[in-house]
Amino acid sequence: MVSTLPSSWFLNFSDNKLNLDFIWRLGLVYYDTKWYAGASFILHSFNYHSEQVRLNNAFGSLNFYVGFNFKRKKAVQ
Questions:
Q1: What is d(CA 13, CA 54) in angstroms, rounded to the nearest whole number?
Q2: Whole-prediction pTM value?
Q3: Nearest by Cα to 40 from 22, 23, 63
């Protein structure tokens, strides 16, 4: 396969066309054989810019949850 990129393509690199996106995740769970509880946090961050527009945006969600195990397996003796 023949590459169509010139050999010095990296010398013409411009950060004007670089847009960054990040996703951050954090979770914490406590688990017992009978019940569980936890929290989850997710953050999305976007960066876009051109000659006419510049945009920085971030949004996230924080979730809490609690549960109970109804049909636990009994220990085998």
A1: 20
A2: 0.62
A3: 63
Per the document, the length of the chain is 77
**Burial track 5-22 (b if 16+ CB lie within 10 A, e otherwise):** eeeeeeeeeeeeeeeeee
Tens-level pLDDT at each residue, the chain (77 residues): 556 655 666 666 666 677 788 999 999 999 988 899 999 999 999 988 877 888 889 999 999 999 998 876 676 76
Longest dimension (CA), the chain: 71
Q: Which residues, other chains included, contact 44 with Cβ-Cβ below 8 Å and sequence gap of 6+?
A: 21, 22, 23, 58, 59, 60
User: Which of 19, 18, 15 lies closest to 45, judged by CA?
Assistant: 19
